[in-house]
Design goal:
Layout: H1 3-19, E1 24-28, H2 36-44, H3 52-56, E2 73-80, H4 88-92, E3 99-100, H5 109-127, E4 133-136, H6 144-150, E5 155-156, E6 162-163, E7 171-178, H7 197-201, E8 207-209, E9 212-213, H8 219-225, E10 241-243, H9 247-250, H10 270-273, H11 277-281, H12 285-291, H13 301-315, H14 320-329, H15 335-350, H16 357-369
Helix pairs in contact: 1-5, 13-15, 14-15
Length: 375
C-alpha cells in the first residue's frame, strides 16, 4: 500500500473503531525497549507477588513482535466503563454493603472488547487481504498502558494507570497487533504534575513510588489475584472492598471529567450494584456461579468470594446478626476461608471496627469532585 493509502486506512480504522463502540483509537509502533529495565526491576523486587505469570513471560511483555511475528504497528483502543448511577460514595460509606470495583459491575470486559477488536480486524482485512492481526485484552503478556500512551490515548499516571485529559481513567484498554506500517500518533504530555493524591490515598500504601505499585499490598491484588490468605495486616485497611479497589482513581482530579459508559454490557447488575454483605455471604456456590455468570467476578471462585466478604464483615460495625452469620458459615467453608471468618468473629466480638479516615476523605472528595453519575 502507498503512503496515502495507509494514511486513509489509518483514518478509516479510527472511524470504524468509534462505530464499534470504542471511545478512542490510536496507533503506535511496537518498540518498548525503554520499558524493559523498568519491568526487570519491578520483577526483581517481587512486586508481582503470586502472579507468577508476570515473571514467567519475562521481557516478552515489552516485545509485542514476539507475540505476533511481523508486527509493525499496534492499534490501541479504549472504552469507557463507568456505569450510570455508580453510587460510589453511597456504597463506600455504608459498612454493611460490599464495594465492588466499578469495572466489574457489568459483563466481562474481556469478551466485549475482544469481540469488537476482532470485528475491527475483519474490516481492515477487507481492505488489506494480506493482513496478519491478533487482538489482546489482558489475554497475553503485553504492556498495554505504555503502548496506549505511545498511541496518544493518554499518559501513565503515578498510580500506574492510563490517564486521559478528557476522560480520566475509568476505561478499558485493548490492542490489535497488525503487519501494516500505518502512520503513528503522537504521545500526549504528562499531566500529573506535582499531584500525589493517588499515592497518599491508597489504603494499604501500595503505590510505593510514583508510577510503581507493589501488587502485594494492593487491595485489587489481595481480593482478586491472591489465592490464599490475605495478610492480617491488610484486613482492617480493606474496609468493605470485596472485589478490587478504585480509591486511587476516585481521588484523581482528572476523573472529574469521566463520562458514563454508553455500552449496555457495562451497565451495573442489580445484585452487585450496592449489595448487602450479609446477602452476598449467604449465597451458595450454585447461586454465586449463577449470579456472576458472564461477570469478571466469577474468575475468583466461591471460596475467595467468601474470604473477601468475611474480611468486610469483620470490618463492619459489631452486631449479633453479623456474628451469627459468620458462625453459621464456619462448617461449610475451606480452611482458608475459616481463618478469615474466625478473624472476623474476633473483630466483631471485640467491637474493634475502625473509622477509616482515608475513606472518609475519599468519600468527601467523590461528592465534591466526581461527576454526578459516578457518585
Amino acid at each position: 500500500m502507498t503512503a496515502p493509502d495507509l494514511h486513509t486506512l489509518a483514518n478509516d480504522i479510527k472511524l470504524w473503531g468509534t462505530e464499534l463502540g470504542f471511545d478512542q483509537v490510536g496507533i503506535c509502533d511496537p518498540d518498548l525497549t525503554d520499558h524493559e529495565p523498568l519491568l526487570a526491576d519491578w520483577l526483581a523486587r517481587g512486586y508481582q507477588g503470586e502472579m507468577e505469570y508476570m515473571a514467567r513471560h519475562g521481557m516478552m511483555r515489552a516485545r509485542p513482535q514476539e507475540l505476533l511475528p511481523g508486527t509493525l504497528r499496534v492499534i490501541s483502543v479504549r472504552m469507557n466503563y463507568m456505569p450510570e448511577q455508580a453510587a460510589i460514595a453511597r456504597v463506600l460509606s455504608a459498612p454493611d454493603k460490599g464495594y465492588i470495583s466499578r469495572y466489574a459491575l457489568g459483563r466481562d470486559y474481556h469478551k466485549v472488547l475482544r469481540q469488537r477488536l476482532k470485528q475491527l480486524s475483519d474490516k481492515i482485512s477487507q481492505v488489506f487481504s494480506e493482513l496478519s492481526a491478533r487482538p489482546f485484552v489482558d489475554s497475553a503478556p503485553i504492556l498495554e498502558r505504555p503502548l496506549a500512551a505511545k498511541a496518544g490515548l493518554g499518559w501513565v499516571g503515578k498510580h500506574s494507570l492510563l490517564l486521559n485529559r478528557e476522560q480520566g481513567s475509568f476505561f478499558f484498554l485493548g490492542e490489535l497487533l497488525v503487519n501494516l506500517p500505518l502512520p503513528v500518533d503522537e504521545p500526549v504530555a504528562e499531566g500529573c504534575g506535582k499531584c500525589v493524591a493517588c499515592i497518599t490515598t491508597c489504603p494499604t500504601g501500595a503505590i510505593v513510588a510514583p508510577y510503581v505499585v507493589d501488587a502485594r499490598r494492593c487491595i485489587s491484588y489481595l481480593t482478586i489475584e491472591l489465592d490464599g490468605p490475605i495478610p492480617e495486616e491488610f484486613r482492617p485497611l480493606m474496609g468493605n472492598r470485596i472485589y478490587g479497589c478504585d480509591d486511587c482513581q476516585l481521588i484523581c482530579p482528572w476523573n472529574r471529567f469521566a463520562d458514563a459508559s454508553k455500552e449496555p454490557d457495562f451497565a451495573a447488575r442489580d445484585n452487585l450494584h450496592a449489595p448487602q454483605l450479609l446477602v452476598l455471604f449467604a449465597w451458595t456456590e450454585e447461586q454465586f456461579l449463577k449470579r456472576t455468570e458472564g461477570s469478571p467476578i466469577r474468575r475468583i471462585g466461591y471460596q475467595r468470594w467468601l474470604r473477601n466478604i468475611a474480611v468486610a464483615l469483620g470490618n463492619a460495625p459489631a452486631s449479633a446478626e453479623v456474628a451469627q452469620a459468620l458462625e453459621q458459615k464456619r462448617p461449610q467453608v475451606s480452611a482458608m476461608v475459616l481463618e478469615h471468618i474466625d478473624w472476623a468473629l474476633g473483630q466483631q466480638r471485640a467491637g474493634l471496627t475502625q473509622v477509616d479516615r482515608k475513606t472518609e476523605r475519599l468519600i468527601r472528595a467523590v461528592d465534591k469532585g466526581m461527576p454526578k453519575h459516578a457518585r
